[in-house]
Amino acid sequence: MAEGMSGSPLLEDIPELLHRIQMRLPVKEAARTSVLSKSWLHAWSTIPTLRFLQATMSLRKEQKPEHLKVIDHTLKKYLHNNIPIERLYLMIDTENQEYSSSLAEKWITSVATKSCLKQLSILIMVTSASFSLPDDILSGKNLTKLRVTGSFSKIHSLLMTTHPVINSVSLRKLHLKHVHISEQVIHEIFSTCKLLVDVELFHCKGFDTIKIKNLGFLNNLQIDSYERNRILEINEVPNLSFFWCVGNPLSVNMGSLEKVTHLSFGDVFMDEAFLDMMKLKFPLLESLTLYMRLWNFESFHFTCASLKRLSLLGCSLRLINVQVNAPKLHSFCFEGQTMPSLMFPAVANSGLKKIKLGMYLSNPVDTSFFLKMRNALELSIEREIGITMTNIVIVPPFEVDIINLRKMAKFPALDVKRLLFKTIGDEGLWESSPFFDAFFTICHPKKIITKPDKMFQHHNHFCKLMVREVMEKKNTGKAEEYLNWPYYLKGFEVKSEKEKSLPDGLRTSLDGSSRHSVFKLNWR
User: What are φ and ψ of residue 435, in 5° steps?
Assistant: First the structure.
């Protein structure tokens, strides 16, 4: 072996290190390293990680056969020369059922049966026909990670075989998305692969009941189901720490899950009894996320001594009061259609470390909305706000008494880290309304990120507002200055989404040509 001046091996004499470098690079850049030397060329031609991630749907018709030939040639070379394949990442579509589907089945079978394979990730676009995964997809004894993703289709499916050869006793991670798999097969997998640590089942079909049982190493379980009346049963999973469950709705039967610290529930019927069940089943809970679409009560009261992070998402107009007794709580996120009253009586006097508010507004808001938001901002050191305004149904203008609001709010919150502002289907109502007069009365954000209207891409309403109120209008008279928020704005800087200066400043963003505009505001 050649050695450097110090007697240590040269970089090019360690193929494993060259492989690591190449695997960290994008495929095209990694391929370019092959021209550096014979050592780099040999490393590239024997790299144990193969990544074929270019979507054939993005290729021109005449390019697709050549792309498939490259994959086929590469795999044949590896198999013929007994070059180990430890990781395979494959993306393919079934547009040409007879050709591409047969090739995909051959490729998966030839690689999955090899003892050297550790990770297999497959993305199959079921565009023109359903595709059945080969029986041998779980036959590799040393396979530790399997990820299978199908594209969403109401007509075609990505089918897991009904008679799989399951020898993957070393499997640690199983991720399935848009896969049609029978109840029997999924239970066979859980019965055989006892070392599973991470299981994710997203939008899978073919079964009514999921039984997670006797998986002593399972740490992360995520299930997202859009099928109705599904049942989830969980027992004997002593090390489960992360549990994420979204149903439509999903009935959940659980044994004791005392080690779960991170919990997410969505589209599950929730009431006071459900909250009591959570406190009983999850005594060590630190992070809780609830998707509140099915919450039908005006108040949400929750007590948890160990809770540190809480997110309430998808809240309806009905929820108007939130009270959380959690002495260790330091982060709170709320997303909904209105601003509720917030109370955290058990939190120390220093308050929360972070509060994030996301408003999806399609109805008029009044003075109480802004006062509740102002009070919420007082509860935390770090504050972020997101506002999405929808004007699909035309609503009357806001009617807010700015003078009265200013007296009641007393002074604006100054340490609002950022505001994200978006509109959907608004042809100009929001930019001409007193909404921002009221909003800037209760808080002075340091940064505002705005996007063009989602339906009318040529509109960026906040940019138009800034031009009209700050650049074109001049305040006259003390009363007008007192009422007008631009009076309190010392200056601002506008940049692109990557925070690069725009060539024509603010006016560049008016027509929506910039995807995001970032305003950095300097207040008096």
Answer: -55, -50
Residue 230, domain member (yes or no): no
Distance, in Å, from the CA atom of 362 to the CA atom of 431, rounded to the nearest integer, reads 14
Q: Are 361 and 396 in contact (CB under 8 A)?
A: no
Give me the DSSP letters along 20-72.
HHHHHS-HHHHHHGGGS-HHHHHHHHT-SEEEE---GGGS-TTTHHHHHHHHH
Query: Which residues are within 8 A (CB) of 327 and not within 5 positions of it... i.e. 6 or more apart?
Result: 305, 346, 347, 348
Half-sphere exposure at residue 336, Cβ-oriented, CA atoms within 13 angstroms: 25
Token digits of residue 121: 């990730």
Task: Give strand pairing partners of 485.
Answer: none
Task: Judge whether 115 lies within some domain.
Answer: no
Angle of helix 402-409 relative to helix 367-377, nearest 10 degrees? 30
How far is residue 232 CA from its own chain's centroid? Answer: 23
Is 468:485 a contact under the CB 8 Å cutoff?
Answer: no
If DSSP codes are grouped into helix, strand and coil, which group holds residue 132?
strand
Task: Return the C-alpha torsion angle 501, 475, 396, 377, nearest 10.
Answer: 60
Residue located via tokens 């507004």: 361
Per the domain annotation, does 319 fall within a domain?
Answer: no
Cis preceding-peptide flag for 249 (omega within 30 of 0): yes
Nearest to 215 by CA among 198, 192, 237: 237
**CA distances to 62, 100, 141, 428 from 58, in Å:** 12, 15, 35, 37
Question: C-alpha distances in angstroms, 163 versus 46, 47, 188, 192, 411?
Answer: 34, 33, 10, 14, 68
Note the pLDDT tens digit of each residue in 334-388. 999 999 999 998 887 667 899 999 998 877 788 999 999 999 998 988 889 998 8
Across 350-463, where does the E strand assignment appear? Answer: 352-361, 380-390, 416-424, 447-450
C-alpha–C-alpha distance, residues 275 and 268, integer Å:
12
Q: How far apart are the first and last CA of the chain?
A: 69
- CA–CA separation, 213 vs 280, rounded Å? 20
Residue 27, domain member (yes or no): yes
Q: How many helical (H) and strand (E) elements, i.e. helices and strands, does the chain have? A: 12, 27
Q: Which residues contact 378 (CB under 8 A, 6 or more apart)?
A: 351, 413
Of 360, 412, 352, nearest to 383 (Cα)? Answer: 352
* CA–CA distance, 287 with 307 (Å, rounded to integer): 6
More confident: 302 or 33: 302
Token output for 286: 């630190």
- Cβ neighbours around 17 below 10 Å, total: 13
Task: Name the nearest CA neighbour of 437 among 368, 487, 495, 384.
Answer: 487
Q: How many domains, in total, are found in the chain? A: 2
Q: How confident is the model at residue 497 (pLDDT cuts 50, 70, 90)?
A: low
**Spatial separation of the C-alpha atoms in residues 127 and 152, rounded to whole Å:** 9
Lowest mean pLDDT among 68-77, 347-356, 389-398, 404-413: 389-398
Residues of the domain holding 394: 351-524
